[in-house]
Design brief:
This protein has a single domain, classed as Alpha-Beta Barrel (TIM Barrel), CATH 3.20.20. It is of the alpha/beta class. The protein has ten helices and eight strands. It starts with a strand and ends in an 18-residue tail after the last helix.
C-alpha cells in the first residue's frame, strides 16, 4: 500500500484539504514522505494539464484519484430533478475522466450523485444514478479510467450510505465502477469496519483515511491496524488517501498522518522523512 494526501487542484474544491496553494501542498506532501496526492478538482477545464503533470513529475508524486464533490455545490448531480442539471453532471464527470486519463487517475463519484431529498425520491434517484454511472463508466473504460463510488454517511446524503448500498449500485452500473471506502463514513455507518472491508473484497479500488473525528489518523479512536489488516486480506495494494481536517495546521496534520500510517503499511519509522524531500 501507498500513502496519499488530498489536496486542492483548483482553489477551494474541498474543505477537506489544506488551505494551501496546490504547489505548496504537493511539495509538503512529498517532503513528508507521501507518494501521491489525490486532486480535488472543481472544473477540469480550468486545469493546466501540462503544468500539473510537470509539477507531479518534478516532485515524484502520483495522482491516484480525482475528487468531483464541488460539482454538487454548483447544482449538478446525477439524480437532480432537472434533466439539464443531470446532463451537466455527466458532462462534468466525463471531463474528469479526460483529466484522469491524462494523469493516470481514477474518478470519484461522491456527492455528485445527488440526494433523494432533492426531489425525485430514493428509487428513481438510484435508478438514474445507475443509468448515468453506467454511461460514464463505459466512456471511462474506453480511456482506461476507473470510476470510484463512495458510500457517504447519512448526515451528508440520503443515498448510498453503506458499503452494501454502494456494492449494489456499482454492480448495477457495470464492471468499471468500484468502491472508494472512507474510514470516517464507515465509522458512522458500518457495524464493524473490518468486516465491511472484507465484504467489499476486490471491489475496493481506493481508500480514504480519516480518524473518527475527521482529524489525522491516530487522533481519534479508530483502529487503523485493523483496517490495514482487512485491506491486506482482500488483496488491496493501492493508496490510503488522507481526507482530513488539517488541525492545528497542515504541516502538523501531514506529519501526524504519515507517522501513524507508515509503520502499519510496512514503512520503517527510520525511513520517515524529517522534512527533506522524499527520495
Amino acid at each position: 500500500m501507498k500513502l496519499g494526501m488530498v489536496v486542492n487542484a483548483t482553489p477551494g474544491a474541498t474543505p477537506l484539504a489544506a488551505d494551501l496553494a496546490l504547489e505548496e501542498a504537493a511539495a509538503l506532501a512529498a517532503s513528508a514522505g507521501f507518494e501521491g496526492v489525490e486532486l480535488a478538482v472543481a472544473d477540469p477545464l480550468h486545469v493546466d494539464v501540462s503544468a500539473l503533470r510537470a509539477m507531479l513529475s518534478g516532485l515524484r508524486l502520483q495522482a491516484p484519484a480525482l475528487g468531483t464533490g464541488a460539482a454538487y455545490d454548483e447544482g449538478l448531480s446525477l439524480s437532480h430533478p432537472d434533466p439539464s442539471r443531470r446532463a451537466g453532471a455527466m458532462a462534468r464527470l466525463k471531463a474528469h475522466v479526460d483529466l484522469g486519463s491524462a494523469l493516470g487517475a481514477a474518478v470519484i463519484v461522491g456527492l455528485i450523485r445527488g440526494r433523494a431529498s432533492d426531489g425525485l425520491g430514493r428509487d428513481e434517484a438510484l435508478r438514474l444514478i445507475a443509468e448515468h454511472l453506467g454511461e460514464v463508466a463505459a466512456y471511462a473504460a474506453s480511456l482506461g479510467v476507473r470510476l470510484l463510488l463512495e458510500p457517504i454517511n447519512r448526515y451528508e446524503t440520503d443515498l448510498i450510505n453503506t458499503v452494501e448500498d454502494a456494492l449494489a449500485e456499482a454492480e448495477a452500473a457495470g464492471g468499471n465502477v468500484g468502491l472508494l471506502i472512507d474510514t470516517f463514513h464507515m465509522n458512522i455507518e458500518e457495524r464493524r469496519i473490518a468486516e465491511s472491508v472484507r465484504a467489499a473484497g476486490s471491489r475496493v479500488w481506493h481508500v480514504h483515511v480519516a480518524d473518527s473525528n475527521r482529524l489525522a489518523p491516530g487522533l481519534g479512536h479508530l483502529d487503523f491496524r485493523e483496517v490495514v489488516d482487512a485491506l491486506r486480506d482482500v488483496g488491496y495494494d493501492r493508496y490510503l488517501s488522507a481526507e482530513i481536517l488539517h488541525r492545528p495546521d497542515a504541516r502538523t496534520a501531514f506529519a501526524a498522518t504519515y507517522m501513524h500510517l507508515a509503520p502499519l503499511i510496512g514503512v520503517n519509522r527510520g525511513q520517515i522523512s524529517g522534512g527533506s524531500p522524499r527520495r
